[in-house]
Amino acid sequence: MKLKNRAPLWLCLLLVFGLIAASCGGDDDEGTDTGSESEGPTGGEFAVSICEPQFLQPGNTQETCGAQVLQSLFTPLVEFDPDTAEPYNVVAESIESDDQQNWTITLNEGWTFHDGSDLTAQSYVDAWNWAAYAPNGALNNYFFGNIEGYADLNPDKGKPKTEEMSGLTVVDDLTFEVALTEPFSGFPLTVGYTAFYPLPESFFDDPDAYNEAPIGNGPYQIDGEWNHDEGINVVRYEDYPETPGNADAVEFRIYADVNTAYTDLTAGNLDIIDVVPTEVLAQAPQELGEGFVQAPSSYYGYLGFPLYEEPWDQLELRQAISMAIDREAITTAIYQGAYTPANSIISPVVPGFREEACGEMCTYQPEEAKELWDANNGPDEISLWFNNDGGHEEWMEAVSNQLRDALGVEAKFESLAFEEFLTLQDDHKITGPYRGAWVMDYPHPQNYIANIYASTGSSQEFGYEELPGSETVDDLIQQANAEPDLDAAIELYQEAEDQILADLPSTPLWFGQTQSGFDPETVGNVIFDVFSFVRVAEVEVLNPDA
Fold first, then answer.
1. Whole-angstrom Cα distance, residue 478 to residue 457?
2. Residue 396: Cβ within 10 Å count
3. Domains of the chain, with CATH numbers?
4. Beta strands 249-254 and 231-236: pairing type?
């Protein structure tokens, strides 16, 4: 399918702050899609690779593999153009505010859950309250931190006295109001994220059982239950009120090793691979031909430091590690130049990006790094941590070699399954520098600054809240969030970025592109968006009767 080449994202964001109503038009141009324009359901089945999800609940799903599945099972209030990330309403008819603090969300009629129950304003209010209620322990709890009454559900001590945020009010079946603690012009963008999906009444009867067989409102519904470490099957939801999914069914096939997935793809046993392993990137364009996909992405890769663990509480040692890494060499040799060395936190795909925000501390300077390491009694041996199911071994090996050459330090690997790796991060049990990455939840600079580095209301796992600079960052984020003018807000986010880079709880490594693949003999119209997700509902099975 051919996509509209929309106006630049920064211009669209200026238009949509306040309400999602503007559209940015332009001339037709090729997007990141492959294959012919879709004309409706084509039937058939296809299989796409993923890793083992951590959760299949909107309130708990933070990582990309679970989110990829949920995107087929749910349709959000707002979706984003796969090329430009321009927002547009789907379940929402409108999202409006006169003051950027008090918002009215009106739903379109005709939406139902896969169990046949009606989707209403109450479906959102109940879902958001559940995720925000501290005793439920939802990982996405912090996304609701700017709604009035959130603090009542998350007291510093004791059990909450209420289970509902005062800032959420159901007006009627299709309308609800959201009162924020302060103005936030980017609010309409946030509700496109997984955490803000609606939930049916059946969820609240047994959230654990729901996790094994989620009920959503999207183009596909789950077929059976989540078969852990093997796969998740979905089938087209025939009562979907928007454009239905093309394929009759989709298999999300779980792989512990992306190299195995690639082998299955090239052998004709898999239709779409979510990521091409770094080991085969050099030959993948030739082996996959028109099935090789390289598309713009919001990916930000970094090396995190466990500030709660000695000796990583020493800034100078974190700086030495940062300057000992030759980002250019790794992105050229391993990623074939598709990745760009990062010298900032805010991604190039959102407003506020600065090419040299980090400066010399994120620049390869092995001699200066060695001086810092020795002067601060850097250890002779360290551990490098990463998940072993995402194709990270090769670049971690390169980092290890560079640290040995520059600093004289030996690195041993702690390589874990993704789910275990995430749990250890959350529990502050990582003992050395570790692989970190972020794909934006919504197209806004705040998502890179606040959602990774804020001391509260974020997913940050560094222990950064213990450093003095963290308080400055929190203050700047608060000011930026309340700023209705995008340019003024960007300046404040950039000030926060400067403070983060001065403290270096993590060091930027690179910005990436999606590098994926598919079998052009079996599927077409394969679109990877700027969030690095394949648009499952739009994939066409070329030989559905085969």
1. 11
2. 21
3. 296-513 (3.10.105.10)
4. antiparallel
139 sits in the region (left: phi over 0; alpha: psi -120 to 50; else beta) called: alpha
302: which strand partners? 436, 508
Neighbours of 267 (CB within 10 A): 9
Kindly write down the DSSP assignment for every residue of 20-50, as one continuous string. Answer: S-------B---S--SSPP-S----EEEEEE
Residues 6+ apart with CB under 8 A from 115: 200, 202, 215
Q: Nearest Cα to 467, choosing from 312, 360, 303?
A: 312
Residues paired with residue 524 on neighbouring β-strands, in sequence order: 540
Is pTM beyond 0.90? Reply is no
Strand 434-438 to strand 292-304: parallel, antiparallel, or no bridges (unpaired)?
antiparallel
Number of C-alpha atoms within 13 angstroms, CB side, residue 282?
A: 5
Of 508, 510, 507, 504, the closest CA to residue 329 belongs to 510
Instruction: Return averaged pLDDT per consecutive 10 residues of the chain, 546 residues in all.
Output: 26 38 33 46 92 95 93 96 88 95 97 98 98 96 94 94 97 98 89 96 97 98 97 97 96 95 97 91 93 89 96 98 97 87 93 94 97 97 90 92 97 89 89 92 89 79 91 93 86 97 97 92 93 94 85
Q: What phi and psi, each to the nearest 5 degrees, are found at residue 263?
A: -60, -40
